[in-house]
């Protein structure tokens, strides 16, 4: 038993030494290069002109010398067009000796951004061997339109009116207020009511783009329709200023007409 007790000390020391050597091991193979991630998303805020984003790449270990890494667009797998929708500000990046992470700057142009996402697929090239992973990076970006009531002001064109007060193409005036999240659809050009100068639809807008609609006073039609109050719901588009009242109800002594649609686009 004493022999086993004494032998256990050097054996433990050997095991500890072996573990230490593994923990301190340094990668000494080819220094492969790849993107830091396979995808990312971004938005360009309306009115900002552009937004700059970084596309990050990395190597398996620190560069042993200054190394050039290049980025290019895979046009066949992209829906955005370089030079029109976006610009690459540095197509070549110099990874300095001792570093393992670099990046490319991409400028996303507001003029090319849409509400639906556009896609840019990037690929890498370098004198450093490519890794077998993360060799493409897909950037998806879209136009972000913050709520701004000033966008719902001016002249609008009628697209749809199933109640048929207006014909497609007729023009209507929209004014802001009275509250910060409200606007008025004026009745000034409505030929079928006797109070066009005083009546309007008051639209209240929520932050998610949903709206509620109510008339400030009944719309006065000739007999047999007579007096009609309006209420409804729908949505607005913060990017285009479009107004879509998808469920409009007319109600009065003569009856109720529900499910009417009233769609306007900015002229």
Structural write-up:
With 267 residues, this protein is mainly β. It has one helix spanning 2-23; strands at 33-35, 39-45, 50-59, 67-73, 86-88, 92-95, 101-109, 118-126, 136-144, 154-161, 171-176, 182-186, 200-205, 210-215, 219-220, 227-236, 243-252, 255-266. 8% of the residues lie in helices and 47% in strands. A hairpin with a 2-residue loop joins strand 17 and strand 18 (255-266). Residues 1-27 have low confidence and may be disordered.
Helical fraction: under 10%
| First-to-last CA distance | 98 Å
- Name the helix and strand elements from N-terminus to C-terminus, one letter apiece: HEEEEEEEEEEEEEEEEEE
Taking the sheet with the most strands, its summary is: 8 strands, antiparallel, barrel
Global geometry: rod-shaped
Discrete helix count: 1
Taking pLDDT < 50 over at least 5 consecutive residues as the criterion, the unreliable ranges are: 1-27
Structure classification: mainly beta
Strand order in the largest sheet: 10-11-12-13-14-16-17-18
* Highest-level CATH class of the largest domain: Mainly Beta
CATH fold naming of the largest domain: Lipocalin
């Amino acid at each position: 038993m004493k022999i086993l007790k004494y032998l256990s000390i050097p054996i433990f020391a050997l095991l500890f030494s072996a573990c230490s050597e593994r923990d301190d091991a340094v990668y000494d193979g080819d220094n492969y290069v790849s993107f830091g991630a396979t995808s990312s998303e971004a938005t360009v805020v309306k009115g900002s002109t552009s937004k700059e984003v970084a596309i990050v790449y990395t190597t398996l270990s620190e560069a042993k010398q200054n190394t050039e890494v290049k980025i290019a667009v895979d046009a066949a797998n992209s829906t955005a067009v370089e030079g029109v929708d976006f610009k690459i500000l540095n197509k070549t990046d110099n990874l300095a000796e001792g570093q393992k992470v670099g990046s490319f700057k991409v400028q996303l142009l507001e003029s090319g951004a849409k509400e639906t996402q556009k896609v840019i697929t990037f690929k890498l090239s370098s004198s450093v061997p490519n890794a077998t992973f993360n060799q493409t990076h897909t950037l998806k970006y879209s136009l972000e339109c913050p709520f701004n009531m000033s966008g719902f002001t001016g002249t609008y064109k009628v697209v749809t009116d199933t109640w048929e007060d207006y014909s497609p193409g007729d023009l209507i005036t929209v004014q802001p207020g009275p509250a910060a999240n409200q606007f008025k659809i004026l009745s000034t050009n409505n030929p079928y009511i006797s109070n066009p100068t005083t009546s309007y639809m008051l639209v209240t807008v929520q932050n998610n783009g949903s709206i509620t609609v109510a008339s400030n006073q009944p719309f006065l039609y000739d007999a047999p329709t007579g007096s009609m109050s309006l209420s409804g719901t729908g949505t607005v588009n913060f990017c285009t200023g479009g107004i879509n009242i998808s469920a409009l109800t007319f109600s009065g002594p003569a009856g109720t007409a529900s499910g009417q649609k009233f769609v306007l686009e900015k002229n």
